[in-house]
Amino acid sequence: MNDEVTIPQKKFNDFLLSWINHLKNELNYSIHTYESYHRDLSHFQKFCIFENVSIFNPNKHIIRDYLFQLNEKNSSRSTIARKISSLKSFYKYAIKLNLIDNIDLSFLKSPRVKKSIPKSIEPEQIKKAINTIMEENNELWINLRDKSVFLLLYGLGLRINEALSLKRKDVPEGEWLRVLGKGQKYRDVPMLPIVYEQIMDYINSCPLKLRPDDPLFVGKRGGTLSPRIIQRRIEKIRYKLGLPDFTTPHALRHSFATHLLSGGADLRAIQQLLGHSSLSTTQRYTDVNEKELINLHKTIHPRQ
Predict the structure, then answer these.
(1) Which of 159, 168, 187, 233 is an active site residue?
(2) pLDDT > 80? residue 45
(3) Other Cβ atoms closer than 10 A to 242
(4) What is the per-residue pLDDT for 242?
(5) Cα 164 → chain centroid
(6) Would residue 250 show up in a list of annotated catalytic residues for this protein?
(7) Active site residue 159
């Protein structure tokens, strides 16, 4: 194997870490997204090593061979689309750092992926889940912390990484909470009194003194709370209460939007609350309501 291949590969791990930090801290990608991108590029790097080429010297034939191999292994359209997105993001960042020359990736066309309909949790199930948090055998401040996060996801429609990126100084004295969302874009969401009171109960019970620039939600050692802690908490409650398999932090956000729409909220208002750049993304929730209406009709119509 020649130096042209091996030298750039020695830089790969450092560059990969730099790119992931860029996705995480500058573009504010979710943990699910940047971890998936990390796996995608590690997989592509292994392919490049096998083909004895440098990942920093891409050519159309290698990339096409890689995608052909994915097709041969019956990878789903959504998986291939994500891997293409990972490659584009990776090389765009490499060009930005002048690590490689500008390259034309326009030949990379993502397959059409059927958008899944967001699944929401019934309001009564969410209420039981939130109440169950306080029954867990943890220190009081930890239960109050996790309940606060739950309420931000369901009550305000935040993404999990948006909630956990909040600092102590972000908790408003007024009626609006400013949130840093995807693409480093801010949006303002109404701070419900019940959510504010819950957060203040957590802050007042927390044994760690939270300074203005400290993370709002902290672990036992004072560092930023890991999303995995909340994910595991929801998994535990899901099993305990027999909730649907899709009960996740993001499902709470979906439920927030679906229940608002069911209550008569305007679609564009929901778009602003969720921080969607495109209305078409928010319109998926109308599909949810249509599906619910069809099921309701089938259940209660006298002709059934």
Answers:
(1) 159
(2) yes
(3) 8
(4) 92
(5) 12
(6) yes
(7) yes
**Residue 80, token pair as written in the block:** 């291939």
Reference 218, options 255, 269, 166, 287; nearest CA is 166
276 is catalytic: yes
In the three-class reduction of DSSP (H, G, I as helix; E, B as strand; rest coil), residue 147 is classed as helix
Q: β-strands 186-190, 176-180: how paired? A: antiparallel
Confirm whether 187 is a catalytic residue: no
Please report which confidence band the pLDDT of residue 287 belongs to, taking 50, 70 and 90 as the band edges: low
Question: Which letter does DSSP use for residue 156 in this model?
Answer: S
List of domains in the chain: 3-96 (1.10.150), 123-298 (1.10.443.10)
Residue 60, sorted as left (phi over 0), alpha (psi -120 to 50) or beta, turns out to be: alpha
Residues 126-137 pLDDT 10s:
999 999 999 888
Nearest-angstrom CA–CA distance, 43 and 70 = 11
For 68-93, the pLDDT digits (tens) are: 898 888 888 888 889 999 998 998 88
Q: Is 268 a catalytic residue?
A: no
Q: Which helix (H) or strand (E) holds 125?
A: helix 123-133
pTM comes to 0.66
Of 83, 147, 233, 253, the catalytic one is 253
Is the distance from CB of 244 to CB of 129 less than 8 angstroms? no
Side-chain-side CA neighbours of 1 within 13 Å: the count stands at 12
The Cα–Cα gap between 231 and 221 comes to 19
The verdict on whether 238 is a catalytic residue reads: no
Looking at the chain, how many residues does it have?
Answer: 304
Catalytic residue among 22, 128, 167, 182: 182
Question: Taking 50 as the threshold, does the pLDDT of residue 49 lie above it?
Answer: yes
Confidence class of residue 6 from pLDDT cuts 50, 70 and 90? very low
Which residue among 11, 88, 119, 250 is the active-site one? 250
Within 8 A by CB and 6+ apart from 299, the residues are none
pLDDT tens per residue across span 202-247: 999 999 989 999 999 999 888 889 999 999 999 999 999 999 888 8
